[in-house]
Amino acid sequence: MDKYTKFVLTLIAVGVLGLNYHLFKGEIITSAYADKAKVHKIAICNPSGFNCALITSKKELKID
User: Which of 18, 39, 43, 45 is 20 to 30 A from 2 (CA-CA)?
Assistant: First the structure.
């Protein structure tokens, strides 16, 4: 076998070993956790940034 073939087969073997390690660790898909400590505030504005949408007293979105 030439060096290229050996290199590709080595990469495949390392990948298979990595997948087996990940699978047998107990987690097939790792968990994702949201950041519960922060509140994200978002403003909806026009492209210039001067006119932004407002929330009315009826909890409706008012866009000028």
Answer: 18
